[in-house]
Amino acid sequence: MNLDRFDLQILEVLQAEGRISNQDLADRIGLSPSPCLRRVKALEEAGYIVGYRTILDAKKLGLSLMALIHISMDQHTPERFAHFEAEIAQVPQVLECLLITGQSADYQLKVVVPDMDGFHHLLLNRITRIEGVTGVHSSFILRRVVDKTSLPVA
C-alpha cells in the first residue's frame, strides 16, 4: 500500500485524536466521509493502524512510582529468552519490555507501582523469581520530559 497525503493525514490525526468521528476526520483532511472511512479501513487492514487505546493517568489511579529495570540473564538461548518473555508478559505492572543491546543487560522493563513498597514486592517476589534472571539494576523516573505515543508520519 502506497500512502498518499490523505493517508498520512489520517494517521497523524488518529494518533492525536483516536475518538474523532469519521465526519470530523473527513472534514479535517478534506475528504468526504465515505472515502475517508474506506481509507481508515484500508489502513487498518494493511496493518498501519494496529489498535486504539485510552491513555489513563497513572497517578490518579494511585500508581505514582515508575521505574526502568535492566535485567541480565544467565543464558542467551532462545528457550531462556522465550521463557522470560512469557513470564514477564503476565506481570500487569510491566508497561514495556524491550530486548536490548549495547548494555550489560539483556532486557529493559518499564514498570509502574503505587510506591517503593510496591516496587520492592514486584522486584523480589515476581521479577527476580523468574528462572534465568541473574542481575537487576533499577532507575527511578523523576519526571517525564517527553512522553508521547505518536509516531512521526510526515
UniProtKB/TrEMBL annotation:
CDD domains: HTH_ARSR (cd00090)
Residue ranges annotated for the HTH asnC-type domain, each copy included: 3-64
The keyword Ribosomal protein is assigned to this record: no
UniProt KW keywords: DNA-binding, Transcription, Transcription regulation
InterPro entries xrefs: ArsR-like_HTH (IPR011991), AsnC-type_HTH_dom (IPR000485), Dimeric_a/b-barrel (IPR011008), Tscrpt_reg_AsnC-like (IPR019888), Tscrpt_reg_AsnC/Lrp_C (IPR019887), Tscrpt_reg_HTH_AsnC-type_CS (IPR019885), WH-like_DNA-bd_sf (IPR036388), WH_DNA-bd_sf (IPR036390)
SUPFAM superfamilies associated with the record: Dimeric alpha+beta barrel (SSF54909), Winged helix' DNA-binding domain (SSF46785)
The keyword Cell membrane appears for this protein: no
Signal peptide: none
PANTHER family recorded: LEUCINE-RESPONSIVE REGULATORY PROTEIN (PTHR30154), TRANSCRIPTIONAL REGULATOR AZLB (PTHR30154:SF34)
Protein known as: Transcriptional regulator
